[in-house]
Amino acid sequence: MAQFFSDLWSNVPLICAAVSWCVAQAIKVIISLWLDKKLDWRRCFGMGGMPSSHSAFVFSLMLSIAVRETVASPLFALAFALAAVVIYDAMGVRRETGKQGEVLNQIVSQVLVEGKPITEKQLKELVGHTPLEVAGGVLVATVVTLFFI
Question: What is the rounded CA–CA span in Å between residue 55 and residue 138?
Fold first, then answer.
């Protein structure tokens, strides 16, 4: 068991990816504090927003594998495919889900104002990313990965 944890902590691509995710999430808290003038700790673990921590995680994993194993390796191919799917999903399906959440929240608000309550629960609107947010995640991943390599 000790060997497992030793191996885990020496896995540079995994450490790069995890640090990239943490840095991206911390940046979200800072941006939220700056824009909203209040500390929102939910941004530490929440989805959506600038920069994309999903993109940071998978891009850092892919980049560190590319540097350590070369782009000709099967591991890089796997990491590239994973990154492509996650980033596409972040900008596509998850972004559209966020737009739907915005519209549904507007409908709920209008119904409540008119006195016909359906529900008071707000849907999550920040579940996907814009291309700029994904680019921010890629930038965070690149800087963190270059720091480790």
Answer: 6
Record the tokens describing residue 109, joined without a space: 């608000």
> How far is Cα 88 from Cα 55, in angstroms, rounded to an integer?
9
With a CB cutoff of 8 Å and minimum separation 6, the contacts of 43 are 25, 28, 29, 32, 49
Is 101 within 8 Å of 127 (Cβ atoms)?
A: yes
State the Cα–Cα distance between residues 38 and 47, nearest whole angstrom. Answer: 18
For the entire predicted model, the pTM comes to: 0.70
Q: Is 15 exposed, middle or buried (0-12, 13-18, 19+ CB in 10 A)?
A: middle
To the nearest whole number, what is the mean pLDDT of the chain?
83
Identify residue 105 by its one-letter amino acid code: N
- For residues 125-149, average pLDDT: 80
Most confident of 36-45, 55-64, 94-103: 55-64
In the block, tokens 């972040």 appear at: 90
